[in-house]
Amino acid sequence: MDAIVIAGGAAQPGEPLYPLIGQGPKAMLEVCGKPMIQWVLDALNGAQAIERVAIVGLTDVQGLQCARLVSALPDQGSMLDNIRYGVRRGFKPGAGSPLVAVVSSDIPAVLPEHVDWVARSAEQSEHDLYYNVIRREVMEGRFPGSKRSYVRLKDAEVCGGDLNVIRKSIATGNDELWEKIIAARKNALKQAYLLGLDTLLLLVFRLITLEGAVARVSRRIGLRGRALDCPYAEIGMDVDKPFQLELVRKQLEERSRGR
Questions:
Q1: How many Cβ atoms sit within 10 Å of the Cβ of residue 212?
Q2: Which residues, other chains included, contact 243 with Cβ-Cβ below 8 Å and sequence gap of 6+?
Q3: pLDDT tens digits, residue range 164-174?
Q4: What is the spatial distance between Cα 239 and Cα 29, in angstroms, rounded to a whole number?
Q5: CATH code (residue 45)
Q6: pLDDT tens per residue across span 209-234
Q7: Count of domains for the chain
Q8: Which of 20, 142, 188, 205 lies in disulfide reach of 233, CB 3.0 to 4.6 Å?
């Protein structure tokens, strides 16, 4: 399948990573000797499942290396807009798999085998959206003190991953749905409308399982969604704060020493 790396955005004054990168692209933050996005590109380049790669949000890619990179596109202002633009403009129309992996540029601990696991899992069914969730014990076992935000369900506490898969057709169509999702990004009332009050109450009181929550939200937004119970904490270990950067650096250093 193809892969889109979302690399838009720069740190702003007052944000945690600003002292480390200034106003430069967050994706180019140095991690153990190379830009953070390069670690992600290395994982995609080494994965058997990935055919082509497009970067969205970073047009100056000099110095970056990825044999499968076919395009670098400008930032469209938001993550959802970048995803849609990447699907529409990043690859030759009509070619390749109907699925595309959407990868954040700030998960430098990801490995090729993690990418392949996600791709194989997505290819086992005919859903529109495959969203990785990572159980609390998996995340904290690998990255203790990472301070992820967890959703408490009846059968698990989970956080979201930053490597997911969508069917290309839902990005090139469904304009009305995407407009609603984009409009709801920073509006709690609109988010509640999208999910449904009944689902929100079940989540608040931990009366619903992971499978049940996915089924309800899928029906509400009109997409066939599937949650992937991901065994790899690295997929959810994004770098937003300096202490998270240090956790990732420590893990990468231990990996390089073969530990």
A1: 15
A2: 145, 147
A3: 999 998 877 76
A4: 10
A5: 3.90.550.10
A6: 778 777 777 777 777 888 899 999 99
A7: 2
A8: 142
If asked whether residues 161 and 186 sit together in one domain, one would say: no
The most confident of the ranges 27-31, 127-131, 215-219 is 27-31
Rama region for 235: left / alpha / beta (φ>0; ψ in -120 to 50; rest): alpha
β-bridge mates for residue 53, sequence order = 3, 69
Domain span including residue 215 = 175-222
Q: Tell me, yes or no, whether 30 and 136 share the same domain.
A: yes
HEC string for the chain: CEEEEECCCECCCCCCCHHHHCCCEHHHCEECCEEHHHHHHHHHHHCCCCCCEEEECCCCCCCCCCCCEEEEECCCCCHHHHHHHHHHHCCCCCCCCCEEEEEECCCCCCCHHHHHHHHHHHCCCCCCEEEEEEEHHHHHHHCCCCCCCCEECCCCEEEECCEEEEEHHHHHCCHHHHHHHHHCCCCHHHHHHHHCHHHHHHHHCCCCCHHHHHHHHHHHHCCCEEEEECCCHHHHCCCCCHHHHHHHHHHHHHHHCCC
Measured from the Cβ of residue 93, the count of other Cβ atoms closer than 10 Å reads 9
- Verify that 89 and 143 share a domain, yes or no: yes
Shared domain check, 209 and 105: no
* Residue 190: predicted pLDDT: 52
Question: How many CA atoms within 13 Å lie on the side-chain side of 41?
Answer: 23
246 has pLDDT over 60 = yes
Distance from C-alpha of 172 to C-alpha of 191, rounded to nearest angstrom: 22
Residue-level pLDDT at 189? 46
Q: Is the dihedral of CA 113, 115, 117, 119 positive or negative?
A: negative
